[in-house]
């Protein structure tokens, strides 16, 4: 079985494709044939050691934690109805590998009929983080939220969730992503690659900022235009806002029930997955460089066992 291994903090280009033995099935396990794993900023930050204080890891380690695949074998304490079913899940000991021995029953979810496995996989590290941010924001009816990093894997879901729950949004993104952001529910768009003085944007109604981009320089530009807003960041642990503004960093998870709700929203077409591209897992370095170097448009997935 092949897997993507991080053995140092030297970054993307130090990742290694290794062959390792297949773990034995135990009574609580479900063996999943991996089809997709999401490419996440979290992995890239971990590979360069930037998250050691927040989330220390032991090296060497298999990269990633989210996956989508097909259940091929179950232990005697797992339900047989899982066999041959498409599932998504979380595997904290590393997901970028051809097979996963899933031993967290609450965090293995069957994909509903009518939802593609690729689309469902984008919920991990995407819609889940967006839903977490929405809950942490504690918005009041009709409030307006400014979202940085709006065209990324989390932002594309957060815009949809804000629209679904009746909130207003300003999306901060690249000029090339206007059409995408509009279709996702953004009422106004701020181009981060153009001077703010050249843009006709009404900042007066903004009461909250959800920062997904993690750029202090960008926040400095935006908060200078804003009143007494509450800033919630999933990307910056520290930031000093203006005296009349507040800043909070948040990191956390949603519940299994929340994941099932998100899957239902996909099935009912209240939410839609935005997949930027799919690349074979052997091209993981290319995929991660694309995440860093290209203007995001949703989620990048790497693929496995596609010939099956």
Characterise this structure.
Helix content is about 25%, strand content about 25%. The chain is an alpha/beta fold and about 300 residues long. It folds into two domains: about 1-120 and about 275-305, Quinone Oxidoreductase, Chain A, domain 1, CATH 3.90.180.10; about 125-250, NAD(P)-binding Rossmann-like Domain (Rossmann fold), CATH 3.40.50.720. Strands 3, 5, 6, 7, 8, 15 and 16 form a seven-stranded mixed sheet that branches. It has a six-stranded parallel sheet with strand order 11-10-9-12-13-14. Strand 9, helix 4 (about 155-165) and strand 10 (about 170-175) form a beta-alpha-beta unit. It is globular and about 60 Å long.
Reported by name, the CATH topology of the largest domain is: Quinone Oxidoreductase, Chain A, domain 1
CATH architecture of the largest domain: Alpha-Beta Complex
Which residues sit in consecutive blocks of at least 5 with pLDDT less than 50? Answer: none
- In total, the number of domains comes to 2
Cα separation of the termini = 15 Å
Counted by DSSP, the helix tally is: 8
Query: How much is the radius of gyration in Å?
Result: 20 Å
The CATH class name of the largest domain reads Alpha Beta
Note the run of SSEs as H and E: EEEHEEEEEHHEHEHEEHEEHEHE
Molecular shape: globular
- Indicate the proportion of strand residues: 25-35%
On the 0-100 scale, what is the average pLDDT?
A: 95
Largest sheet: 7 strands, mixed
**Helicity, as a percent range:** 10-25%
Alpha-beta content class: alpha/beta
Question: What is the H level of CATH, i.e. the homologous superfamily of the largest domain?
Answer: Medium-chain alcohol dehydrogenases, catalytic domain
How many E-type strands? 16
Oligomer: single chain
